[in-house]
Design a protein that fits this description.
The chain is about 30% helix and about 20% strand. It is α/β, with parallel strands linked by helices and about 350 residues long. The protein folds into three domains: about 70 residues, Roll (SH3 type barrels), CATH 2.30.30; about 160 residues, Rossmann fold (3-Layer(aba) Sandwich); about 80 residues, Probable gtpase engc, domain 3 (Ribonucleotide Reductase Protein R1, domain 1). Helix 2 crosses helix 6 and helix 6 packs antiparallel against helix 9. The chain is globular, with a radius of gyration of 22 Å. The chain binds guanosine-5'-triphosphate, magnesium ion and zinc ion.
Length: about 350
Amino acid sequence: MSSFDSLFSVGWGPRWATLLAEQGEAVEPGRVLRHDGVSVNVLTARGERIVKLRRGADAPTVGDWLALDGDTLVAVLERSSLLRRRAAGGDDLQVLAANVDLVLLVCGLDRFVRAGRVQRGEALAWDAGALPILVLTKADLAPDLEGTLAAIDAVHPGLERLLTAAPTGLGITELRARLVGCTSVLLGESGAGKSRLVNAILGAEVAVTGAVRAGDAKGRHTTTNRQLHLVPGGGVIIDSPGIREVGLAGDEESVDATFTDVEELGLHCRFNDCAHTGEPGCAVAAAVVGGDLTQDRLDAYLELREEAMLAGERAEDHARRTQDRQAAKASPKKSDRR
Ligand SMILES: Nc1nc2c(ncn2[C@@H]2O[C@H](COP(=O)(O)OP(=O)(O)OP(=O)(O)O)[C@@H](O)[C@H]2O)c(=O)[nH]1
Ligand SMILES: [Mg+2]
Ligand SMILES: [Zn+2]
């Protein structure tokens, strides 16, 4: 028995105990509940605490486990997973949440569910080292529920999906059961119903929700900070602000994980480096002709793979430039050396 057992409800376990022990005897653990730019709210065995962040030091994010000495951050414990996305148009990767097991891709059925958005979310989840689950909200507002679900399932083979409606409680018990023992994060555009879902799961009005515009069902970015909540029955869930663009964090493998059907077909192509873009003996192209794979899905795969490749190259360039700058700083007068 350790004195940190009360943290089991927020995911404490042997992994964290081992990593914490490496930080010496004087430290205690805490999990980041909320981040507000200059400080983080941390849950410790002795209650919630605000820890100020120092500039340039290890930057913790929501979901991180910290080693603390009083109110001082000693270390961010090595993450088991990290959800990131590429910020719109930039080289920068925005860190969304750490140590997550499940990424809940939240889409409201009051508007069209765009396949590309879901596929990008899937790729981000795989890239993080987490499992994606499609969570459809607002089932009560769907004009043709059965038709919509059939269409969505056809476009996303292999993706786990849950259907919910907050006003009627549809799917909430199933979702809660799915969250037991996991750290889950909600990802979706503004107005998708993430915060209302959190309230339904928690059985309490904890998260603030906001109405969507009547004309286009767009939200108003009601939630502005990521926040970790405890799920009754076990597990934790992170509510997050709506995101408009889901820029891939790089890594073509995360795209392959999203399109395992295309990957499997590709094993039968004549060339093992086949790009499925018109090569002879391409099994993927044959599957499209034979009707086993839609051209739309192949196009989506090729497009996301290209984007991931370019993102990966940009990230490498970025890393190289940073390294060069640091090297230049370390030895400013190289030419003077004899
Ligand atoms: N009818 C119905 N309305 C819902 C459901 N889920 C959410 N809503 C409504 O949709 C609107 C937006 O919900 P929020 O939970 O605030 O959306 P959000 O995803 O948190 O939005 P941001 O915080 O802006 O990212 C609110 O008016 C909710 O009451 C649902 O299942 N059915
Ligand atoms: Mg919200
Ligand atoms: Zn091929």
